[in-house]
Amino acid sequence: MDAIDPIVDFLFETGILAKTPRSGFYFLGSGSQSVAEHITRTVFIGYVLASMEGNIDRARVLKMCLLHDLPEARTSDLNYVHQKYAKAEPEKAVNDLVKTLSFGQEMKALIEEFEERKTAESIVAKDADNLEWILSLKEQVDIGNSRAREWMEIGIKRLKTENAKKLAHKIRETDSNNWFFSQKDDPWWVNRYKT
């Protein structure tokens, strides 16, 4: 097989993440999200947190955020209840994937670093992962899911960095629709500047 073939296979495999649902929403009773959607916002949060922290390797944080749930293309997403009774083998999934790619060992090292949570970058990346869940839960709170508030409080307790905790407390008190209507006094909202 050409060296390019496994790269193309890998790119198709990453597409599965867009079709893989985050299973916690089943138990929450509302909302939905794919693993790819979760990863996308986690990367943005990782960028923000790494920028707030300042003295860490931002690129490594972003790479960990990008890759942290990659094994779920093969294992699916197992939420906390599922993990208590079913065993996924993400290490095996990573090993099977990376042995086919010339850059696979770098990916494996980043995923392992994320899972070990011994470096400042991995702690920030995990906080980004948890903050994404907290944001998703706050969106559900704001449309009336009372369960999501309790789940959000548990998520906040998982945070390690002070910056992530500050963001979480502000997320808790901010309406998730606020960004959209932040300039609601602008006449644009009434007439789109038409006379």
Automatic annotation (TrEMBL):
Keywords, ordered alphabetically: Hydrolase, Metal-binding
Molecular function GO terms recorded: 5'-deoxynucleotidase activity; metal ion binding
Annotated coiled-coil segments of the chain: none
Pfam families assigned: HD_3
EC number(s) from the headed UniProt entry: 3.1.3.89
One GO cellular component term noted in the UniProt record for this chain: cytoplasm
CC cofactor: Mn(2+); Co(2+)
Taxonomy, superkingdom: Bacteria
Subunit structure: Homodimer.
Name under which the protein is recorded: 5'-deoxynucleotidase
Organism: Candidatus Doudnabacteria bacterium RIFCSPHIGHO2_01_FULL_50_11
